[in-house]
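Q: I have 185 residues here and want to know how they pack in 3D. Can you give me a structure?
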Amino acid sequence: MSGRRLYIVLTVLLLSAAAHADDRVREPEGYRTESYRAPVPATLAGARVLSTDEAEAIWHAKSGAFIDVLPRPPKPKSLPAGTVWRDQPRRDIPGSIWLPDTGYGILAAATEDYLKRGLDRVSGGDRARFLVFYCLADCWMSWNAAKRALSYGYTNVAWYPEGTDGWAAADLPLADVQPEPRPEE
């Protein structure tokens, strides 16, 4: 290959690599407040990011508390009176605590209090307890919740971005769970 041709090939490769590097999702300054099901960053400042293998090892060792923040589907407002409503079952990593609706970018005071109380319960009040946050793949809610836990002073926070999608794809066990009760329930 001639020197000029090699130069052109290398230039194209470098430009292509630079273009793909710009495609990476960057961490926002604050919380994500829209388009929650979208590509997520590869990092979360202050937290450990887990692969499925790492999450499985932590789960087997029982060395961390797993916290799911996937929203709970709301009861449709247009249901006729007397209609029986059954929540959709949630298949989750066994032993997890489910704190639905706590991964939004903006939380109502009651929802934030629910999250704080849930974290306090699962951590036993120990801010150094290892906490693993997740929901689904490409879901910003677990990223938001893990970031929020860091802001509350939790120091041993992990984020499992593949969530139950990655867990199920690895053929790991799932269990039906109910959300942690809210004070008004």
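Q: Anything worth noting?
A: The longest helix spans residues 3-22. Residues 14-22 have pLDDT under 50 and may be disordered.
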